[in-house]
Design goal:
phosphate transport, disordered N terminus, 3-stranded mixed sheet, D-Maltodextrin-Binding Protein, domain 2, 19% strand, 349 residues, alpha/beta, 13 strands, elongated
């Protein structure tokens, strides 16, 4: 390739690079290698796992570059609807109304699962037990101090500090918020009528932070703080976690094992692979667990991108699942993997 031709080629590729795609670079052995770059954005819930996957996949496939931005489910879905990303991620998948705005069609793929935990900043010798009514009343602003009698009753022998409770919640549109508030609405008529469920709600009390990252940081910085984050963020940052009372009346710590018990009751419908469980049955089920979804278009104008994304998804469903448990997420069952692979095969160019 002459210097003049190379210069013209590079000039021609500049707008494509801006769209995160560079194709057909000349290699040392003069063979053409196709390079493709995929851009995704959305939920912070699965971001640590996505970042691990992206790194591992790129090491095995250096011609594929994947950039994932943790900006929250709402923002990710907005970019997806606007067509400014190649894929998105959301902890609440996508609504029918949102999907109707996408001419190219949308496929929602559950790609991993995990727990939403209540982490707090207290120096105690053991993990707090929080009854259902207690954590509802904390989020409603009705229980405002850690030495409240109802908290003490559930934690006999634990010396609770006379500290004010500082609730930390999300400020961005968040699938994590949606999953938590769906749970709170399912177990509390008062919460349902006063606050309700959604990716953004009017919190009765507390201070806000952006992303799981921001909520985790605020909890760490404020003595007496409590907030909701994805399990991996809490464990990575060594936040104390509350054992929550489940539907059976048992106090359950969030662990991969207790979350797996919850998922056993979730049946994914064949048509869209979207399902939630707001108040799981089971003596050992942790009460707040969710799948998180990777959103792709049904139709891609660029066949290179379509195939690259399909290859990555297939890898994530097989090799990538091995990293899930290591990081604190839940590997998909074999049955779910087959369902997701079948859906991903419908991605077309």
């Amino acid at each position: 390739m002459s210097a003049q031709l190379r210069s013209k080629r590079q000039t021609y590729l500049l707008p494509l690079v801006a769209l995160s795609l560079s194709v057909a670079a000349c290699t040392a052995d003069n063979r053409n290698t196709i390079h493709v770059s995929l851009v995704g954005a959305g939920a912070s819930f699965p971001a640590p796992l996505y970042q691990r996957w992206v790194l591992d996949y790129n090491q095995q496939n250096p011609n594929v570059e994947i950039n994932y931005q943790s900006i929250g489910s709402s923002a990710g879905v907005k970019h997806f609807i606007n067509g400014t990303v190649d894929f998105a991620a959301s902890d609440v998948a996508i609504t029918k109304e949102q999907a109707a705005q996408i001419n190219r069609g949308v496929i929602a793929l559950p790609i991993t699962a995990g727990s939403i935990v209540l982490g707090y900043n207290l120096n105690l010798p053991t993990n707090l037990k929080l009854p259902r009514q207690v954590y509802i009343d904390i989020f409603l602003g009705k229980i405002t101090n850690w030495n409240h009698s109802q908290i003490a009753l559930a934690n006999p022998g634990v010396k609770l500090p006379a500290l004010p409770i500082v609730v930390v919640h999300r400020t961005d549109g968040s699938g994590t918020t949606s999953v938590l508030t769906q749970h709170l609405s399912a177990i509390s008529p008062e919460w349902k009528s006063k606050v309700g469920a959604g990716k953004a709600v009017a919190w009765p009390v507390g201070i806000g932070a952006k992303g799981n990252e921001g909520v985790t940081a605020q909890i760490q910085q404020i003595p007496g703080a409590i907030g909701y984050v994805e399990y991996v963020y809490a464990t990575r940052n060594q936040l104390p976690l509350a054992a929550l009372e489940n539907k059976s009346g048992n106090y359950i710590m969030p662990t991969p094992e207790s979350a797996a018990k919850t998922l056993e009751a979730v049946k994914l419908p064949a048509d869209n692979l979207i399902a939630f469980i707001t108040d799981p049955m089971g003596n050992q089920s942790y009460p707040i667990v969710t799948y998180t979804w990777l959103l792709t278009y049904h139709q891609y104008q660029d066949p290179v991108k379509a195939q690259a994304l399909k290859n990555f998804i297939d890898w994530a469903l097989t090799e990538g699942q091995k990293s899930s448990l290591e990081l604190g997420y839940l590997p998909l069952s074999k049955k779910v993997v087959v369902q997701v692979q079948s859906a991903a095969n419908k991605i077309a160019e």
